[in-house]
TrEMBL record:
A UniProt-annotated Pfam family: DUF5753
SMART domains recorded: HTH_XRE
Domain (HTH cro/C1-type) ranges: 16-71
Protein name, UniProt field: Helix-turn-helix transcriptional regulator
InterPro entries associated with the record: Cro/C1-type_HTH, DUF5753, Lambda_DNA-bd_dom_sf
């Protein structure tokens, strides 16, 4: 194993092996003995402290009966690390961050949405999908919210445009319930939030939505959102530029509290 840790992209892969092993009721020592490696080696794989060889992943896949899903995830992660333009598991990657900062100009972030708000955003965004397909996406967002806002989730910081909290996405009841959820999450300390007022004359976040993720003992990564998928990078120069934009966005933001007018006002009046 190299002394340098693999990129944070390997964290979801290691967690996937751990979940599959737990689902089969096997201890790490039992699985390690079955696939012919030491317990320490398998620990390094599950903790993403090494990049496992394909042959080892194939043996683990066979023993756990995951029908080549682990091998496919391994190949995707290996390619994504070499060419980090896009990473399909970026939501799962966020769960493994210690600190996550996100700027969203148009809507409330996925991991802070109510079910109804999620449905109201996803339906119009995917007119080609059936209601059942949209509902599956809603369930995925709810699972992501549970993981991100749970006790093992990252420290969350979000900055929105004011319009995101005034746009009645889904109607009055949906918007008001979404505001209530955000107020509750701020109240209990799960997330801190800022908002950039609409009258801001020099808005620093016009480049679009992006997320910065910090990890223990691994470089920071940035995910830039796009209409279709997005771009993920850990390249130090790009991360540095995004950090400068983040600082400017924070400088223009006004802190939200559970009693801020933007959260307590009822639409359509406010």
């Amino acid at each position: 194993m190299n002394s340098a840790l693999p990129s944070a992209m390997w964290l979801p892969f290691g967690a996937r092996i751990l979940r599959a092993r737990s689902d089969r009721g096997l201890s790490r020592a039992q699985l390690a003995a079955t696939v012919g490696v030491t317990d320490d080696k398998l620990r390094d794989v599950e903790d993403a402290h090494c990049r496992p060889a394909r042959s080892l992943v194939e043996r683990v896949d066979n023993v756990l009966g995951t029908e080549h899903q682990l091998v496919e995830a391994w190949a995707i992660t290996l390619q994504a690390e070499a060419f980090p333009n896009e990473f399909g598991d970026q939501r799962e990657l966020g769960v493994h961050a210690t600190d996550l900062w996100e700027h969203q100009p148009m809507a409330v972030p996925v991991f802070l949405r109510t079910r109804e708000y999620s449905r109201a955003v996803l339906g119009p965004s995917h007119p080609d999908l059936t209601p059942d397909e949209v509902e599956l996406m809603v369930e995925e967002e709810m699972a992501n919210r549970a993981a991100m806002t749970g006790p093992d989730g990252p420290v969350l910081r979000v900055v929105l445009n004011e319009s995101a909290l005034r746009r009645p996405q889904g109607g009055a009841a949906v918007l008001n319930a979404q505001r209530d959820l955000l107020a509750d999450l701020i109240e209990v300390g799960i997330v801190t939030m800022g908002v950039i007022p609409e009258q801001t004359p020099h808005h620093p976040g016009l480049g679009g939505a992006f997320r910065m993720m910090e990890f223990t003992d691994r470089p920071t990564m940035v995910y830039a959102f796009a209409a279709e998928a997005g771009d993920l990078t850990g390249e130090s120069e790009q991360v540095g530029r995004c950090a400068m934009v983040r600082e400017a966005i924070e400088g223009a933001a006004v802190e939200l509290t559970p009693r801020s007018e933007l959260l307590t006002a009822r639409w359509p009046e406010g």
